Amino acid sequence: MVDVQKNVSIDAPQVPMRRFGLIVIGDEILSGRRQDKHFSKLIELLNERGLSLSWAKYVADDPEQITATLKESFASGDVVFSTGGIGATPDDHTRQCAALALGTTTELHPTAQELIAGRIQSMAEGDPIKADLSTSENQHRFKMGEFPIGSDIIPNPYNQIPGFRIHEHHFLPGFPVMAAPMMAWCLDEHYSDLFHRENWAEQSFIVPKGIESTLTPLMERIEADFPGVKVFSLPSVGDATRGGVYAQRHIELGIKGNANLLESAWTALRTGTQALGYEIHDIPQS
What we know:
alpha+beta; six-stranded mixed sheet; five-stranded antiparallel sheet; 10 helices; 13 strands
């Protein structure tokens, strides 16, 4: 019996697999002025729930790019998280682009209006001028509650200014401190039926001086012979700081998928690698 590390194993009704995607919008990410933290956080939140991220895209604060990207993702049927561009400054285009991509318009969401008004009142700290909702400054703040018609709000525990959800797309602020709990809420509120559906497992070993072109036919044969199993290859030029087998050029070769499918594929991968003349070194399980 192969000791394959299992993440979770529970029986669940068969539900079609769903793909999860991420769109990160913002010139500041593409220019390097800010480092994206949404990518790693969403992976973490998905993995905690037995899910995985299928794709990610980075888009500039350009209405044409944003609209085209959203048209494509709306048509995909994927569950998508989009961060950035939902404020009320001139470079915030996401709300309008989402509406355009869906062939609709935006309108002030009544619940968002209440939440924004409440935020204005709390920030005014009793100052009647700051609390006056009719001022041009406060009226401008209500633009943050203008969402594509048919949207639902996503609560924002940080400052109460909501995001919005439509067609399984979830639009969140660009600030990670706000977006992270909102992502978690969306997953728990709308996709709990998908959690930990698979008895997911992953196992790999090190192939010193491995050559991907030599191993590729074996990898293709494993996937063809064992449907539902994915083979992965992670090449490295070597890391002297780790020492041992990791110090020289090597490949981490492995399989992943439903644990019930992996045992025979694991044996075939190991045997096939050794048949090519390679040594294999097992990776200690943490």
